[in-house]
Amino acid sequence: MERLCRQLDAQLQNKVIDRLPVLHLTTQYRMHPKICLFPSNYVYNRALKTDMFLKSLQRLNVTLTRAKYSLFILGHLKTLMC
């Protein structure tokens, strides 16, 4: 990582690139929406949002991180999206 940062800094100084190629995550699909609030507020300047489908699953109290629910989610995806 340090080598990458030095290389990008050198490219900026030599005007090979005009800005750093920084991408920011805007939608997350893994965290509970309440847990997502911390990185959204303090790292992403309130720009990180939770996917709407994940929010609907959270309202059903389905925990995506537990393997025993993954078959239920895949098997009933059409039902959950209604």
From TrEMBL:
Tree of life domain: Eukaryota
The signal peptide, as residue positions, is none
Cite a single GO BP annotation: termination of RNA polymerase II transcription
The GO cellular component terms are: nuclear body
User: What region holds the DNA2/NAM7 helicase-like C-terminal domain?
Assistant: 16-50
Q: Which GO terms describe its molecular function?
A: transcription termination site sequence-specific DNA binding
InterPro entries, per database record: DNA2/NAM7-like, DNA2/NAM7-like_C, P-loop_NTPase
Q: Could you identify this protein by its name?
A: DNA2/NAM7 helicase-like C-terminal domain-containing protein
**Species this chain originates from:** Podarcis lilfordi
